[in-house]
Amino acid sequence: MQFELTDELIEQVQFLIEMKNDKELQLLLKEYHYADIAEILDELDLEEAVYVIKLLDSETTSDILMELDEDNREKILRNLSAKEIAEEIEELDTDDAADIIAELPEDRQAEVISQIEDEEHKAEITELLAYDEDTAGGLMAKELVKVYETWTVAGCLRRIRGQAKDVTRVHSIYVVNKQNKLVGRLSLKDLIVAKSDQKIADIYISSVDYVYVNDDVEEVAKVMQKYDLEAIPVVDNNQILLGRITIDDIVDVMKEEADKDYQLAAGITQDVEADDSILELTKARLPWLVLGLFGGLGSVFIMKGFENVMETVPSLFFYTPLIAAMAGNVGVQSSAIIVQGLANDNVKGSIASRLFKEIGLSLINGLALAVLVILFGFIINQELIESIAIAASMMSVIVVAALVGTFVPIVLDKRGIDPAIATGPFITTSNDILGIYLFFVLSGLIIGF
Amino acid sequence: MQFELTDELIEQVQFLIEMKNDKELQLLLKEYHYADIAEILDELDLEEAVYVIKLLDSETTSDILMELDEDNREKILRNLSAKEIAEEIEELDTDDAADIIAELPEDRQAEVISQIEDEEHKAEITELLAYDEDTAGGLMAKELVKVYETWTVAGCLRRIRGQAKDVTRVHSIYVVNKQNKLVGRLSLKDLIVAKSDQKIADIYISSVDYVYVNDDVEEVAKVMQKYDLEAIPVVDNNQILLGRITIDDIVDVMKEEADKDYQLAAGITQDVEADDSILELTKARLPWLVLGLFGGLGSVFIMKGFENVMETVPSLFFYTPLIAAMAGNVGVQSSAIIVQGLANDNVKGSIASRLFKEIGLSLINGLALAVLVILFGFIINQELIESIAIAASMMSVIVVAALVGTFVPIVLDKRGIDPAIATGPFITTSNDILGIYLFFVLSGLIIGF
């Protein structure tokens, strides 16, 4: 059943578009899931993609739009009238509808909203647009199945049949009191198993997880993951039920967060993909490279300061890439573990105990590596004092690099800055400079220059 | 409603354990969700944790066990008898039960299985244990709601009431034919909305996504994410329905994969957390550091070969950390983009076009950085020919590093090796050596030594 995007399929679609053979094209695309059609559209020219969107009914195209690559979606929407976009919006759940509108330029947003015919849908979308996109409110949908505690099971089933039409998937039925405050939940299963004359108040489950509308999405993701939830209701500060968030949206958030952190660690400053344009890739990569360059030029400066050592202990200069590499690697390892620990809430204990642990850990690693450096010195017939100086200062560099890698993210996190920025090139670069400086100073103290 | 793990709470639990005040302890813990109790237990001593597990009923403790940190779970299980573990297993869904048993030492596995009283549960768990843990079979549960296409809606609802008791959450109802082949699906909603005398054959939806029992879990995750599924049925090669996978398990798989890739990129070879012991952290970190050290010693060797250049153009040696850093950073960026692209299936086009793009991209980046290096040369009054030699060879190093970073993961992927291992220290180290060698050779050609 796996869909495979083949060149033949794309060519076939392109051929039918060129021939304007709408009937055949509709028949062909009907076979595919909207997520598959989105993949096909991502491969077409803009004009071709717009042609397909205008051809298919808005029930299908609204879903396709949601699955398209963001850049492509933006381009296609620019080629649709406000009326046409509004028609797509009518078909979407409120959360997706609000997301699409939020992506439009501001002047078009009002225009599109004014064209939405369903007044309730319009009001709900406008409400959702007011929330910050990184909060529960920005992620929730207004579609949910809600019952009052005073209803009976039979009455409930009857009304759910009405409500459920608008809700793609019924995860939980939320139970509210007269003031619309969330008081509990029910599953469809519970309802089916219950007797039809029972009151909802007698059968609902009062322990219900929920999040507040202003909670951060990462917090929502953590709660849903921890408690294995597939949907979670969103309430305001007075417990009034406002909407619900479903796990598929959280899966997307998690994927985006993981990709972003990975890219930050690799020194890529914005969301790019392998198939983006050279210009976009350059914009994402050059900033960190320039930072790395300044770091490297800083090392040039430091080493120029020790130029006279070249005559007495030239071999020190051979070790500078090694020192920079070790400082960088240790720093990246330490920062990665801490950043992940902070994200997963498993960095516990006091600062002092962490300090102690990190020093212990890096001393063990440093010692093992120092032994190897001294052995290497024997092999290449290096003066013992030089080998010892190099090994000892390398050990110190490793300890300092580990401390920088551990504590910079912790400090950033305490100040409310995303600690993930302190991984990769940032740590590597600062540790490079610091490491090389320390290396020369300490070797100088041991060898005596 | 957010649960917070406070020191007071832990102390209170510890006090009640010490006092052996079972009644109060049970009352206290009853207030909390099993995932919260697991967090509390992760903070207790082994003896205390075992005390709590033995105190609470197995319906609760089985869920707690699943949420515990893996190391802690292993220790606790070692303190339970085969009979006691079997009692926990009886309460768990088949997928969780099989996971727990798979974690036990082999001799205990048979012992625990033999103590399971429910014969059907035992058979199902034994079946699941046979599948590779990285496949759909290793992730699926046997619990699902299955109806035959010949049943009526009323008969269906009646039987579902029976089946659903064993199924925590009914996502979809799977429709099978007489041979137990999967033919379609139904939602509870569809069933409630349908008339009671309709036949299932008339109302079921025949387009149903499914995966094969031997499909890779990453493939399953991709399918479920793409099609926004909350559960997916698993079939064998003859389309016989074997089990189902739910999104909460996929969420965990995605999280683990993302953490693993992030750690690989940061040079950490096994799954560790910030709070693991120094020994475990060393085991995870030292291997890559040793690799980095060998790389650095390789650079020492290369530079020793160019020792005589120290007299004519000493400044070249000041630039070696810069060259190594640029080679490393560019390589990590390129590999990260490709590894992510391969994971998300968006690396398209031919090898030739990718080669062309990567060269173009790195030439642009390299040129921008080369200009900065020449400017820096002016500022520090460096000979122009030296600056040009350094800038030009740096550019070449950047191009080569980008190519290595791009194509090593592609080659690994083609050979069926996880390309994520070719990020971080691996790319940094090989690019460091290659870069420094290239730098001296090319500078030599330009300056003439």
UniProtKB/TrEMBL annotation, chains A, B:
Residues 140-203, 204-260 form the CBS domain. GO terms for molecular function: magnesium ion transmembrane transporter activity; metal ion binding. The chain crosses the membrane at residues 286-306, 318-339, 359-381, 387-412, 424-447. Homodimer. Keywords: CBS domain, Cell membrane, Magnesium, Membrane, Metal-binding, Transmembrane, Transmembrane helix, Transport. Coiled coil: none annotated. It is found in: Cell membrane; Membrane. It is a multi-pass membrane protein. Acts as a magnesium transporter. One of its GO terms (cellular component) is plasma membrane. SMART domains: CBS, MgtE_N. Belongs to the SLC41A transporter family. This is Magnesium transporter MgtE. The keyword Translocase does not apply. It holds the Pfam family MgtE. The keyword Membrane applies. PANTHER family: MAGNESIUM TRANSPORTER MGTE (PTHR43773:SF1).
